[in-house]
Design a protein that fits this description.
Blueprint lengths: L10 H5 L15 E2 L11 H8 L15 H11 L6 E4 L1 H14 L5 E4 L5 H8 L4 E4 L17 E5 L11 H10 L4 E5 L21 E6 L12 E5 L1 H12 L8 H12 L1 H24 L3 E2 L6 E5 L3 H10 L2 E2 L11 E5 L3 H12 L2
Parallel strand pairs: 1-11, 3-4, 3-5, 5-6, 6-7
Antiparallel strand pairs: 2-8, 7-8, 9-10, 10-12
C-alpha cells in the first residue's frame, strides 16, 4: 500500500528559519575561532567540586530553582536570591523571556544587526519586532529606542563587539517604561562599561541575562541566569514550569557554583583574553584591516573579500565566522583564542 506524502509540520514550523550555529569540528587539529568559547579550561575548583559529588544523588531530580547556585550568584552581585533565575544556558533563559514578556506584543525594539537567535524566537513566539538600524559605524544610538512595547539589546552587541555605557542603558529604560528592557550581557565581563545589574534595583522593568559559557569557560555545561525584580523572575518561573521544571542538572549547578566562587581564576583568564584581544587587534590594524573597538572576547574585522578570507582560513584549518547577510557580509567575526592560536591566525592572514 502506497503511503501518502503527508506534511506533518505545523504552518509556524514551516515558516521558521532556524538559527545556524558555528561549525563544531569532530577531529583534532583545528584552530577554533568561530563560536566565542573561552580558550582556557574552567577553574580547577570546578573539577574538584564535580569529583566530590555524591553520584548517588543522580537518582533524584535536581533542585527545580537551583537554590545553591542562585545563592552564590546573588552573593556575587550583592543582591537577594529571589532576584535570580537560572536556566539551561542563557539561550534558554532568553527564549523563556521572549515568551514571558514579548509574546503577542507589537513594536518590540531590537537592533537590525545583533544576535541571530533573536529573530528566530520572535517568529516562534509571535513577537512583533521593530528592527532599529545601527549607525553606519555599527553603534547603537540610545535615542532610537523610545516608546516600545519592549526592548532587546545585547550589550556588548554581537557580532559587532561594541558596547553602550550604563548612562545610555538608563536612558533607554526611562524611554520605555511600559515594557521589559532585556539586556543580554553574554560578553559583558570583557567590557569596560560595567554590568547593568545594579540598575535592577531602580528599574522594575529591567531584566539582565548572563551566562557561564564565556568568561567562566563552561559552555559545555549550559548554565545561564537572569537578574531582575521579583515580578520578572516570577514570570520566567511560570513559563519554565509550564515547559520544563528541571532545566539545570546537578552537574551544571555544582560546576557553575564552584566557578563563580573562584574570582581569582576568573580575573586571570579574563585579563589574558583581553590582553590577547588588544594585541591581535593592533597587529591586524597594522596590516591595514579595520577592526571595531571590541568590548568582547572576539573581533569584528572588515575585509574586502570576507568570504574569500573565510574560505582561505578554512583551508588552513582555522575556523572564523562569516555571514552572507546585508551590512555584515564584508566582515569576519574572530574569537580570541590562546596567544599561540592568535599568532597562528595572524601569520596565516599575513601570508595573503
Amino acid at each position: 500500500m502506497e503511503v501518502a506524502n503527508v506534511d506533518y509540520l505545523s504552518e509556524k514550523v514551516r515558516r521558521l528559519t532556524p538559527y545556524v550555529a558555528g561549525i563544531q569540528p569532530r577531529e583534532a587539529g583545528w584552530i577554533k575561532l568561530n563560536t566565542n568559547e573561552n580558550p582556557y579550561p574552567p577553574s580547577p575548583k570546578v573539577m574538584k567540586a564535580l569529583q566530590g559529588m555524591d553520584i548517588a544523588r543522580l537518582r533524584l531530580y535536581p533542585d527545580t530553582l537551583g537554590g545553591a547556585l542562585r545563592g552564590v550568584i546573588a552573593q556575587s552581585f550583592g543582591i537577594e536570591e529571589e532576584n535570580v533565575f537560572c536556566g539551561n544556558g542563557s539561550d534558554e533563559v532568553l527564549a523563556l523571556a521572549f515568551q514571558a514578556f514579548f509574546s503577542g506584543k507589537e513594536c518590540v525594539l531590537m537592533p537590525d544587526v545583533s544576535y541571530g537567535f533573536y529573530p528566530v524566537w520572535a517568529e516562534m513566539y509571535d513577537v512583533g519586532v521593530k528592527a532599529v538600524p545601527l549607525g553606519n559605524d555599527f553603534t547603537i544610538c540610545h535615542g532610537d529606542y523610545k516608546g516600545g512595547s519592549g526592548v532587546v539589546l545585547a550589550n556588548p552587541n554581537a557580532p559587532t563587539s561594541l558596547a553602550l555605557d550604563l548612562l545610555a542603558i538608563e536612558k533607554i529604560l526611562l524611554n520605555n517604561p511600559n515594557g521589559v528592557v532585556l539586556i543580554d550581557e553574554a560578553y559583558s565581563d570583557f567590557a569596560n562599561v560595567g554590568s547593568a545589574v545594579p540598575l535592577c534595583a531602580k528599574y522594575s522593568n529591567l531584566l539582565v541575562v548572563r551566562t557561564f559559557s564565556k568568561s567562566h569557560s563552561l559552555a559545555g555545561l549550559r548554565v545561564g541566569y537572569a537578574i531582575g525584580g521579583r515580578e520578572l523572575i516570577e514570570g520566567l518561573r511560570r513559563v519554565k514550569d509550564a515547559f520544563n521544571s528541571y532545566p539545570l542538572d546537578l552537574f551544571a549547578q555544582t560546576g557553575a557554583a564552584a566557578a563563580i566562587l573562584d574570582k581569582e581564576y576568573w580575573e586571570q583568564t579574563k585579563n589574558r583574553i583581553i590582553s590577547t584581544r588588544d594585541k591581535t587587534a593592533l597587529a591586524l590594524r597594522q596590516m591595514g584591516y579595520r577592526i571595531l573597538d571590541s568590548q568582547t572576547n572576539f573581533l569584528f574585522m572588515e575585509v574586502s573579500d570576507a568570504n574569500g578570507l573565510y574560505q582561505y582560513l578554512l583551508d588552513s584549518r582555522i575556523l572564523a565566522r562569516y555571514w552572507d547577510k546585508p551590512r555584515i557580509n564584508g566582515f569576519l567575526r574572530v574569537t580570541i583564542g590562546t596567544e599561540a592560536e592568535m599568532e597562528a591566525f595572524i601569520q596565516c592572514v599575513s601570508q595573503l
